[in-house]
Amino acid sequence: MRISVLAMAAAATLALAACGQSSSQSDQAPAAPAQATPEQVKTLLAQLPAPYNTGDIVNGKARFTQCAACHTTAQGGPNLTGPNLYGVFGRKAGSVDGFAYSDAMKAAGWTWDPARIDTWITNPHAVLATTKMSFPGLKDPKDRIDVIAYLKTVTSPLPQ
Prior knowledge:
With 160 residues, the protein is an all-alpha fold. The chain has helices at 5-17, 23-28, 38-46, 57-64, 103-107, 114-122, 124-127, 141-155. The protein has a single domain, classed as Cytochrome c-like domain (Cytochrome Bc1 Complex, Chain D, domain 2).
């Protein structure tokens, strides 16, 4: 059953308010960003094309935990094993300063959008065989939609 956008926004606000970082991340990361309001979450989701704008961000957050082992999402957050993902939507692949990308990723030439992220997180090695990313992929299409919706809400500047 799909959760309405308003219910998702309310759930997202509660989920984001409850977010915590491990001490190792909080020691490296800048001060916590402002929490998105339900209206800001709704606006960010509306910026996504279908079907990503219908994603369940609570499930997306739960699925993202495996990504969080290697990626941070906060503005100014550190690169870990993978690059920081803040601002990923609309960013050129292989372009985060200070991150040592594979040659294939540096040469990829694409810009990250929801469809590209979806293809990538399905199976990164099918897209770039020599990627350094060890993630085997997220096979469930609904989980990928949800992760992309969640990413949009935590890696994008908050609308005014």
